[in-house]
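Anyone? Bumping this.
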Amino acid sequence: MKFLFRIAVLSLIVFFAYRLSKVHTNGPQVDPEMESYIAEWKADMTNAGIDWVEPYKRIKRIYFYNNSDDRLGYSTYNTNEVWVSSSLLRRDPYLLRASLYHEMGHFVFQLDHSSGIMSDKSLCDNDPLYYEKNWQSILKDYLEKCKASKANIL
Ligand SMILES: [Zn+2]
């Protein structure tokens, strides 16, 4: 009987742990300083006819992180978090935008490193205004990648 009780308690714990893991249905908690960039990303997605809502809701938190390495951003399914380096707040807003879009491309559309925004290294190292000068064309390329993503269909 004690054994059955333990199984019942264990089942309840597993059930509630599972329910808790599915709680983030209203979308992520977004850092206030990040909100305008996220609003822009959503508008770009919507204007391009890309369905971003469901995969976006899986994100738990989007924030600025005070990292000590030279990484510009990071996203992980382990904790469902997306961050960009707080060092970008002191740099070109287009680099910040590109870094955020890059991480959103990984998380929401499962894009890997190829070209443009999804390139694995900053394209403004040689030309500090690269993203600002080329934003419309690299955004167009990025939106096509998001549209073509299989993750978008799911
Ligand atoms: Zn990346």
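Late reply, but here is one note on the structure posted above: Strands lie at 29-30, 61-65, 73-76, 81-85.
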